[in-house]
Design brief:
single chain; alpha/beta; ten-stranded parallel β-sheet; nine-stranded parallel β-sheet; 3 helices
């Protein structure tokens, strides 16, 4: 009997600890960039697969063992990109680098599909873009801090199937995120804040998703869909005081067939200037609107916490029931 009680006590303690860690993780929006690991480095330029091995990065360039470019502090000067990679087929990850004062923080052009990840970097004070991605598909860009004082946080051109998630684009001199002439771009759970121009802009891009983002305090549109942007879906974003004080809508749509709500849940976006009745009109030649504005800001914690609470509770309860049945 004593052994059973001890096991039960251990499970309950584990449950409480797991619940605490989950709550802490969900409430902590500080990114994982670790300045204490940085080592000063010259700029990185890789324009063929052979250069990866020459530079001595860890890894072998395969999908399961990618080259790792990490923990570097680079300030290349405004004529050069801090990290410049093109025409490669090897798998690689750029992680936990501080990239400042260059022309671009990270520049990636014409690399093989599915070979690139950019994680937990700080790109600031670059003359053009924090991250510049062109002619490259199936890329993962996550948990980077992009800004302040880049012209743009992230810029994509002629790309497909790119995921941009959990990044902070704050205080850039132009826009936070722009993707142009692209398709199937997923922009979720990012923060676009205090950018001089626009939070997130879709230029001539189709079949993309902009959802669950915090978009606040841009001097112009929070989200802008340019002419030629078709069949995009925008929902569950929090729009806070973009175009503040001008009386204009916080978003602009010049495209076609774009939907400003989730068709499954019939839930749209939160607009802090919505008057609480009817739909929310979107500026632009598309003459569209958010049919289902949210009455309060969307919170990912509200959506996910009950589910994980159920899972964590289920384990000790199941154990207790099983033990009672055996007695």
């Amino acid at each position: 009997m004593m052994k059973i009680k001890n096991k039960l006590k251990s499970i309950i303690i584990l449950f409480c600890l797991s619940l605490f860690l989950l709550y802490f993780q969900m409430g902590n929006d500080v990114l994982a960039f670790d300045e204490s690991l940085l080592v000063p480095s010259d700029r990185i330029e890789i324009h063929s697969d052979e250069v990866f091995e020459t530079l001595g990065f860890s890894g072998s360039g395969t999908e399961t063992d990618p080259y790792i470019i990490e923990n570097l502090e680079i300030s290349a000067g405004t004529y050069y990109s801090n990290i410049d990679i093109a025409n490669t087929t090897k798998y690689f990850i750029i992680r936990n680098c501080h990239l400042k004062g260059g022309y671009h923080g990270i520049k990636i052009i014409d690399v093989a599909e599915g070979t690139v990840q950019m994680l937990e970097n700080l790109c600031e004070v670059n003359m053009k873009y924090g991250i510049w991605l062109e002619n490259t598909n199936d890329v993962y860009i996550a948990k980077n801090t992009l800004g302040p004082y880049n012209t743009l946080g992230v810029r994509l051109e002629n790309c497909s199937s790119v995921t941009i998630t959990e990044n902070i684009c704050d205080g850039n001199n132009g826009a936070g995120i722009i993707f142009a002439n692209s398709e199937n771009i997923t922009v979720t759970r990012n923060t676009a804040r205090n950018n001089v121009y626009i939070g997130i802009e879709n230029k001539y891009s189709n079949d993309s998703l902009i959802a669950y983002n915090q978009i606040e305090y841009q001097s112009e549109s929070g989200v802008k869909i340019a002419v030629g942007g078709c069949n995009n879906i925008i929902h569950h974003n929090n729009f806070i005081s973009n175009f503040a004080g001008t009386g204009q809508a916080q978003a602009t749509d010049h495209g076609a067939c774009n939907i400003w709500y989730d068709e499954t849940t019939l839930e749209g976006n939160y607009w802090n200037d919505w008057d609480g009745e009817g739909n929310y009109s979107i500026d632009g030649t598309a003459n569209c609107c958010d049919l289902y504005p949210l009455a309060k800001p969307y919170s990912t914690e509200e959506a996910t916490f009950p589910y994980y609470l159920f899972i964590l509770t289920f384990i000790p309860i199941t154990y207790i029931i099983q033990r009672k049945r055996k007695q």
